[in-house]
Amino acid sequence: MATKIEGGCSCGSLRYQLKDNPVFVHACHCSLCKQQTGSAFIAHAFIESFNFEVTKGTLNYFEGATGSGNPHEVGRCDNCSVAIISYYRGQRLRGVVKVGTLDEPEKFPPKVHAHVNNKVPWIEIPKDIPAFEGNYDFEKTWPKESFQRWTKAI
User: Fold this and answer.
1) What's the whole-model pTM score?
2) Domains in the chain: boundaries
3) Mean pLDDT value of segment 72-83
4) By the 8 A CB rule, do 84 and 77 touch?
């Protein structure tokens, strides 16, 4: 079980906590993630919804684009609009927290990089971290315990 993992938005009006360590963390370099974040990539922390709790403030949800065309909801601070969590494929049982919104994001480095075919050339991925040109198979790539935890959440 994790110690207290907290995060929030840039204006401070929204705070949240994770009640357990993320199931898995990956970095995505796809064009949409770069565009939606205004950055070179995004780090996502996969978490079951029952392990994510808003402790202060309110999230507003907006529909976002995805490369697959599947539904994607983004929960944003209702004051500053910082993206905090996403829910994919029309379900709310499992979410993807934006690692940059954690108070200590350095504790949750990505274990995999996806869509590196769209990576900016000045990002260097460590040689010991798996990198995939596009999507990857969670079951084949994640530790068995992580994949089981993720599938159990639905």
Assistant:
1) 0.94
2) 5-152
3) 95
4) yes
Give the integer Cα–Cα distance in Å for 82 and 75.
8
CA distances from 93 to 28, 41, 46 (A): 21, 25, 11
How large is the average pLDDT for residues 130-142? Answer: 96
* Mean pLDDT, residues 90-100 taken together: 93
Rounded Cα distance between 113 and 126, Å, is 10
Terminal C-alpha separation, the chain: 20
DSSP 98: E
Q: Which CATH superfamily is domain 5-152 in?
A: glutathione-dependent formaldehyde- activating enzyme (gfa) (3.90.1590.10)
Separation of alpha carbons 95 and 46, rounded Å: 6
C-alpha–C-alpha distance, residues 68 and 66, integer Å: 5
How confident is the model over 58-76, as pLDDT tens digits? 999 999 877 767 778 999 9
Neighbours of 15 (CB within 10 A): 18
